[in-house]
Design a protein that fits this description.
alpha/beta; Peroxisomal Thiolase, Chain A, domain 1; four-stranded mixed sheet; about 25% strand; globular
Amino acid sequence: MVNNKGDDNMIQVGILGTGSYVPKKVMTNDDIAQIVDTNNEWILSRTGISERHVAENEDTSDMAVAAAEKALDMAGMEKSDIDFILVATGTPDYPIPCTACRVQSKMNLPMIGSMDISCGCAGFIYGLSIAEGFVKSGMYRHVLVISSEILTKHIDWSNRATCILFGDGACAAVVGEVSKGYGFCAGDFGTDGHAWDAIHIPAGGVDYPLNDEALHNGDIYLHMDGKKVFISAVKNMEHTVLNSLAKAGLQKEDISYYLFHQANMRILLNLSERMDLPLDKIPKNLDRLGNTGPASIGIALDELVRSHKVNDGDYLMLAGFGAGFIWGSQIIRWKSL
């Protein structure tokens, strides 16, 4: 029997609407080959990425608003219906204040609570879990969960190991009460802080403030140990997925779709093989969008929903892994919107 995290009298919480957004500008592998020593075949064979979208004259908050408005529209809600805003991002508009404040302002929402979440590429899943707790407790009725990332402004475009991977994008979900037997069933979360520097931007914080040395050394850009990331991502996403399945009392075969963080095609293929999951159960968008960080999961979900591929009662597994290392998963029993 599925564990819906409570007794029969407890509020069941799920997703009432989804939205996503990517910038208009498209950068192909051939475009990148004009900047660094690479080519389309080399990038495609190592990452599965053909192109990505790149933000130009827009901020993280602008993309967040665009995705959020689509989610509200799908949910059939007014802005006044939202009680709290959560924004998962590692690329905020400013270090201070939080990007969620700018989203509240740009959307002309009431003076409701808002906050940012910094949980790497698992941020959207963490945001959904926090929102679930807010609604289940009765504190709020409707929580707007957003993930928005402009990663292309934080990479060194002369480093072909990282510049080929990332794209910009945003996703959103309205979280609220759903019918009994639907919604979030189980979740699992974990951290390995010993690997904090496997994906990080060295400069810009208290430990290493911005200065001339940081600029000269390129420490203002994203640094990544690709091999370490690959090994840990596969191991821990498999682990968290199995934990959520066990908590929900479900088998792998019960899940209609596995929405993994879209980091690299090799990771997705490895997870498919290790867990014996059919590839048609693993939606993919990284070929068109690159790695959009935590937004990749929500974008994949929104694309599934809008293409009418998710049916009432389907079980969906969401799983993410990112800088920290930090990871998490959640199972949702889908209620048709």
